[in-house]
Design brief:
This protein is of the alpha/beta class and about 400 residues long. About 35% of the residues lie in helices and about 15% in strands. It has one domain: Glycosidases (TIM Barrel, Alpha-Beta Barrel). The strands form three sheets. It has an eight-stranded parallel barrel, surrounded by four helices. A two-stranded antiparallel sheet has the order 6-7. Helix 4 crosses helix 5.
């Protein structure tokens, strides 16, 4: 019986994943070259964790204590102030230093970045020299690629992230992609496993992938090239899961049930976030050892994004008209802090967001500070610079 080279490639890859058989290592390496595997060589599964070697195993990695002790103050951060990423908008050193100072004054010590490029390298460098205890979850921006094997933008982001993660001591973790399931690109979803393994093979930090909770809670599948792809394809290689949840985003439901009672709305929003967290934890997949498991059984889950608009920016959202207020934004912020501190849910919640992002138009207004870096009511009574008073108007929501 004869086999094509492609069949040998598929056979070697399958055996390596299920049995981690070292005897197939040489065949697999040849396949990666001969079959056009542009995602880089698969690391040897028994490779030592050595920065000098530049190759790391795909085994599970332990999250640093800042993620697991329940005391982190985590926030999402874009350094841009004008047209946003992908434009000529280039934050100055002074801009970034101001942002870092404001976040540090409140106590934020774990910052999520969305991309890996020269601007985000500048953020890491300036933070390292001014706030060395501040840690970062380094992001990798991924677009819908031209192919999994080669895409100029995605390859540049991945290569820069590897360089930063292996040279900057304030990079605590690395996140591959931001909400790829919402790009409507089945091709991108088919690439995620290869992207994640490519990054994990070259950095020592724990790895995650940020996405909407519905990817897991809704058991979403994506069809490409005659094959079906889902989160189950890449979950075996993650060290922790980062989910996004915005409870009032389904404004038709919320408008019909809670528009008359702010307290009921906020408490229902907390319950919805908790349900979304549980749904992601109940997602079933098969781990790298071939054992059926769930997310909650196999890795920590953090909230990568959640927040509440302090002002209406979408004129077509009826709920925002009455619910997107500074008081409600503080209420939700406090509820998230209480949930994290309680210990029964996520040990880390990255709030969205630090500053308003004007380039997002009708999806702006989430910032704890506005675009001019003026602190909003959500920060009242805190250690934030120029924090407003909680008595004007009086705050009657959740206390923290």
């Amino acid at each position: 019986m004869s086999f094509s080279l492609r069949q040998l490639c598929n056979f070697a890859a399958a055996c390596r994943r299920v049995f981690q058989a070292l005897v197939l290592g040489s065949i697999a390496s040849a396949c990666l070259v001969s079959c056009g595997g542009g995602l880089g060589p698969t690391p040897p599964l028994d490779a030592p964790e050595s920065k000098e070697q530049g190759s790391y195993t795909l085994a599970k990695r332990i999250l640093p204590a800042i993620y697991t002790n329940g005391t982190a103050k985590a926030i999402n951060y874009h350094p841009y102030r004008g047209a946003g990423p992908g434009t000529s908008d280039t934050p100055t050193d002074a801009n970034i230093l101001q942002d870092l100072r404001l976040m540090n004054a409140y106590g934020f010590n774990l910052i999520r970045l969305f991309g890996s490029d020269d601007i985000h390298a500048k953020v890491l460098d300036l933070a390292l020299s001014t706030y060395p205890s501040m840690k970062f979850q380094l992001g990798i921006y991924l677009r819908a690629p031209s192919s999994c094997d080669s895409d100029a933008v995605n390859d540049a982001q991945i290569n820069k992230a590897i360089a930063l993660a292996t040279s900057k001591s304030n990079v605590a973790t690395v996140s591959v992609g931001n909400e790829p399931s919402l790009t409507n690109s089945a091709l991108l979803m088919s690439c995620m496993e290869g992207y994640i393994k490519r990054v994990k093979a070259r950095v020592p930090q724990p790895i995650t992938a940020d996405d909407d909770y519905w990817l897991y809670g809704g058991n979403r599948n994506f069809s490409y090239g005659g094959s079906s792809y889902s989160a189950a394809n890449f979950l075996p290689w993650l060290d922790f899961l980062s989910i996004h949840t915005y409870p009032p985003s389904n404004y038709i439901y919320w408008w019909g049930t809670h528009r008359a009672n702010a307290s009921a709305l906020m408490l229902a929003s907390l319950a919805e976030a908790q349900n979304n967290y549980a749904a992601a934890g109940n997602y079933h997949f098969t781990n790298a050892a071939g054992v059926a498991t769930t997310v909650a059984e196999s890795m920590p889950i953090v909230i990568g994004e959640t927040g509440w608009k302090a002002r209406q920016t979408n004129p077509n959202n009826a709920l925002e008209t009455v619910a997107a207020t500074p008081q409600n934004a503080k209420w939700y912020f406090d509820l998230m802090n209480i949930w994290q501190a309680g210990g029964a849910g996520p040990k880390t919640i990255f709030y969205f967001s630090s500053f308003d992002e004007t380039w997002k138009g009708i999806d702006d207004g989430w910032g704890l500070w506005d675009k001019d870096r003026v602190p909003r009511y959500a920060l009242c009574g805190s250690s934030a610079e120029n924090a407003p008073s909680c008595t004007s108007p009086p705050y009657t929501g959740a206390g923290y």
